[in-house]
Amino acid sequence: MLEIRDLRVHIDGHEIIHIDELDLPAGTRLGLVGESGSGKTMTATAIAGLLPNEAKASGTVRFDGQDLLELNDAEFSKIRGKRIGFVFQDPARALNPMMRIGRQVSESIRLHTNLKRRAVNDKVLELLDQVQLPDPAALVRRYPHQLSGGQQQRVLIAAAIATDPELLIADEPTTALDVTVQEEILQLLISLSEQRNMSVLFVSHDLGVIRFVCDRVAVIYGGHVVETGCVEHVVSDPRHRYTAALLAANPGMPKDDDFASFMGQRLHTIPGHVPAVGKFPGGCRFRNRCEHASASCAEAPMPVTLGDGHRYSCWHPDGES
Q: Which terminus of the chain is more solvent-facing, meaning fewer CB atoms within 10 Å of its CB: N or C?
């Protein structure tokens, strides 16, 4: 379905993204996880052809055999919205405040299909019902400000799946929502993916959410994928020190699933902060924040592939002396 090879994104002479290899098979949900500034959203927008004008992408991003990076804007617009859907992080900003909900959901249907007006209207009502919004017939006439945050996010999802895309990219779609609504949205995405056999690239900073939603995970730091594999394998046996640090910093997801073991203990934090663009160290980009770093980390580690497809790049893997 989606194959990425040697994807590089440059802005003002700085390499923001360099992903050697990343695959998303058909019908699979892949989580892209890392701290803010790690390169998650830039990777997602590169795949969707939504990079800012100053960004330049190179390498190969094959979608169903077609290299997306070779397409011009007109060619990409025939794929984005029709075969690739995108759910943005902030629905209040993504939705047009001056346009009724029904028209916003129907936009891609009118653009990418030959359905007549009545059929389009019926399709919109069906989509709003699919994303579990109450009274779709009344809701189509409302404006975004008349909906709650959770309802706005469901509208975005309805618009993104309106043309039955093979791939849905969701960029932290639950960040601004309360915990109860978050779970509802996540369950909805899982259900839609399974019903439609739709691949999902799910971007998040939370490994707990990734574990709940996804089959596979790619841990990204400094624009590099440092570890990838089956989500349960990566969570239960993290090899890269950054993955292990993310897990330790997430009190809702201890490795042994025993939340009580965290009670009364000081929360673990990752030392330092994600460097600014152009400030990452050479070699392993995490080495200036890693307590296990050594002189060898000044050189980029070679990737290691385990028997189960679990892949990582680290000189001093977690679990080894």
A: C
Give the integer Cα–Cα distance in Å for 310 and 268: 25
168: amino acid identity, one letter: L
| pTM score, whole prediction | 0.89
Q: Tell me: the pLDDT tens digits for 115-167?
A: 999 999 999 999 999 898 999 999 999 999 999 988 998 999 999 999 989 99
183 in Cβ contact with 190 (< 8 Å): no
The DSSP symbol for 307 reads T
- Helix, coil or strand: residue 84: strand
Res 303: pLDDT: 92
Question: Tokens 């189509």 belong to which residue?
Answer: 140
- Indicate the SS3 state at residue 58: strand
Contacts of 201 (CB under 8 A, 6+ apart): 2, 24, 30, 32, 44, 47, 167, 168, 169, 170
Amino acid (one-letter) located at 289: R
Question: Do residues 143 and 124 lie in contact, with contact meaning Cβ atoms separated by under 8 Å?
Answer: no
Taking Cα atoms as reference points, which of 284, 289, 171 lies closest to residue 226?
Answer: 284
Q: How far is CA 229 from the centre of its chain?
A: 15
Pairwise CA distance, residues 171 & 45, whole Å = 9
Q: Which residues pair with 62 in a beta bridge?
A: 3, 67
Q: Match 């579990």 to its residue by tokens.
A: 132
| CB-based contacts of 203, cutoff 8 Å, min separation 6 | 31, 32, 33, 40, 41, 44, 169, 170, 171, 172
Return the residue matching tokens 């899982």.
Answer: 190
Say how many residues make up the chain: 321
Cβ neighbours of residue 222 closer than 8 Å, sequence gap 6 or more: 38, 39, 274, 275, 280, 285, 286
Q: What is the pLDDT of residue 254?
A: 47
